[in-house]
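[Automated response] Your request has been received and processed.

Submitted sequence:
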Amino acid sequence: MPPPRGGDSCTEQHHQPATVHRACDEDALSHASQKKQKQDHRRAASLHDDVLIDILSRVSYRSLCRFKCVSKAWLALCSELDLHNRSPQRTVSGYFSRNIGEAFSFHDLTAGDGYHPPLVDPTLAFLGSYQRIDVEQCCGGGLLLCKCWESRSDKDKYSYVVCNPATEKWTMLPPIEFPDTTPDGRYIVEDRLFDLNKAHHKLGFDALNPSRFVVAVGMDNSFDEVREVAIYSSDTGRWTSMQSQWPSETVLEDCGDEAIFLNGSMHFPTSSYSIVTVDIEGKVWKEIKMPNSHGLATIGQSQGYLHYWCVDNYQLSIWVLEDYGSANWIRKHRVNVLELFGKNYAADHKWFGVAIHPDCDLIFLTGSEMTISYDMDSRKMHVIYASKAFVFAVLYIPCFAKWPSRKVALPDSYK
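Generated structure:
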C-alpha cells in the first residue's frame, strides 16, 4: 500500500530510510548556515557602506560624480542624501574676506589640518579662459558672484558670473537691458544717466531652495536715492525692472555685503538704519527699522530668522526679528568686545561683526589684526586668524545642490 500523500518528505520521517534522514538534517543545517551567512553579509555590507560613506564624504564633488559610473550599487550609494548631510564639508570650511578697495580672497580653514584637501581653487580655473576673475561677493549658501574679463586691456568690458566652487557649476548673467537702454548700456533714472554696466550687483541665496538664487541692482538718481530695482532670478533666467515702492529718500548701503534672501524677499540695509525688502515679483515692499541707530550695522540670516548686529561703545549687540508682522526685534545676546579681544586693543575701536553662522548661534568678529568666532551659548571665543583684520567677510559653506538648468538666452547685442 503506497504511503499517504501530504506534507513534504522530511516530515514523513517514519517512511524514509536513514540516508534520507541524514540528507534532511544536512539540508537543514546547510539552510541555517546559508541564512546566517546572508545575515553576516548584510551586516558586513552595512558596515562597509558606512565606511564608504565616511570615505566618500571627504572626496571632491567631481570625483563623487565619477564614482557614480562604477556600478548601480555605487550610483545609489553616492546619491544618498545622507552622504552630503554627514559630510564635514557641510560645515564652515573657510571664508572670503576683503578690505575697502580690494577684491575678495579665500581663507581655507581645512587645508592646513592634513586631512581635507583645499575646497576652493582661488583661481576659479573651472570658469574657463578668462584673463582676470574678481570675486565680488560670496553668498552664505556657498555661491560666488564674480566679475570676469576676457581681456586685461579692456577694463570696462566684463561679465558677471554666479558660480558654485564646490560643484564647479556656473551661470553667466545676461546684461541688464530695457527698452530705453542706450547702446552703451546707460539707462535714464530721473535726472541721471545710470550706467547699468557699472551697477552694484547684490547676490541672494534661497536657503530653503538651494538650487535658486537672485541678483538685485538698485538704480538710483543723482542723490543715490533708489527709484527702480532690477532683479535677476534663476527661475526665469532674465532681468525684470520695477518702480521702487520704498520711501523716496531710501539709499542702499554699498557695504559690499550680499543681500539677504529670506521668506521669499530680498533684504537690503539702508543708510538710515533700516532694512528695506522686496519680493522677486515686486508685489510686496517693506521697510523695517533697526533697533539701534549707532555703530556699524550688519545683517544676516541664521536658523531661518533675520539677524542684525552692531558694535557700539565696545558693546556687541545681536538682535533677531522673530515676528515680521510687528517688526519687533528681540535682543538675543550682548557682550563686551574687550572681553573677547583684550583690553590692550581698546585704542583701536574698529570692530566688525562680519558674519553669523546660518545654523547655530555662532558669530564671527574681526578687528585689531584678529578674526575670531564667538559662541553665544557657551560664551567662548576661538581665534581664527591672528595677523589681519577685515572689513568685509562672508563664511563659505560648500553647497552640493543641483544647479539651475534653465538656459539663458543672451540678447543679440551681447553675442
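Summary generated for your ticket: The first strand starts at residue 94 and ends at 98. Helices lie at 18-56, 61-67, 72-79, 81-86, 337-341.
If you did not submit this request, please reply to this message.
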